[in-house]
Design brief:
Layout (H helix, E strand, L loop, with lengths): L18 H6 E3 L3 H9 L10 H15 L7 H6 L3 H4 L20 E2 L18 E2 L17 H13 L7 H16 L8 E3 L2 H20 L3 H21 L6 H22 L5 H13 L15 H9 L1
Antiparallel strand pairs: 1-4, 2-3
Helix pairs in contact: 2-7, 3-7, 3-8, 3-9, 6-7, 8-9, 8-11, 9-10, 10-11
Amino acid sequence: MAGEPPPLLEAGWLASEGQLEALSTEPNVPREKVHAAARASDLSARFSSEASLRDELLTGEFLFRSPLLLGGQAAKAGLSCHSCHVNGRGNPNFEFAAISDAPGTADTTHSFFSKTLGNRTFDPVPIPDLTQPGKVDHDPSSGDLEAFITRIVVDEFSGSRAVNEAIGPLATYVRALRQTSLSKEADYRPRSLMRDMADLKVTAEQARLRLKAGQWRAASLLVASAQGQMQNVYERLRADLHEQQRSWLVERSLEAGSLRRALNAQQASASEQIIQWQAGLKDSPDFAGIEEETLYNPRLLAKALER
């Protein structure tokens, strides 16, 4: 029916041509390979242990996916760094109304996103692949990458300077992406329900660790990242077959919302709430056996997109 919203939120910023491929596959950037590259580089010298480097990389990766890291209209639309740079690579299918020209481009000085950088000129540029060489110096001693990321979050997308404690992990993750030996042409893997569910629990654990370290804002952004992940899974489940799983996701997301309010207010109760939330995430209904019945199945997704 004309005027119906797309079945997945992500479809709202994807070109119609190639949409099925963009929603059913993703660039294959193995986390283990990114972490191994970081351990083998000079990044490892900045951390006391491999475990601390791993946590920094995981925090950076899931902040990269947080829909509330960016401010203003981008946050309202549900956009994250990952939306433009899928798994750190580019997004040749990205097409946002009034922001993109050809698919894979974005006007980074458009007043829709930025009040400070808006130049009243429509001048979209190709979205870069962060795993490939670029213009910004990645040497940790220069601090140029941190300054660049801050500029993107604060000036380009009207985010808050309160995210300063998130900039370090983001920079570490982006540096590790550059260190990873990936070909210029990306290879792709199928989207996976079980990989998304596993990532949800990893994100929650990183939020707990950031709260333990007194990083309230980073913890809140990570919980928001988890909420975004739950929404992505929820959208792909069928109301007629997966009522139990959908209800479980709604309950966990509501708990996450309450937790975020406690984190934003720096309430002492947040420590207990996050533990209870994690316990709920571990006690989930069966997701392993339903993937072929969901919109993770390209055949069913294609039918949904046709409608």
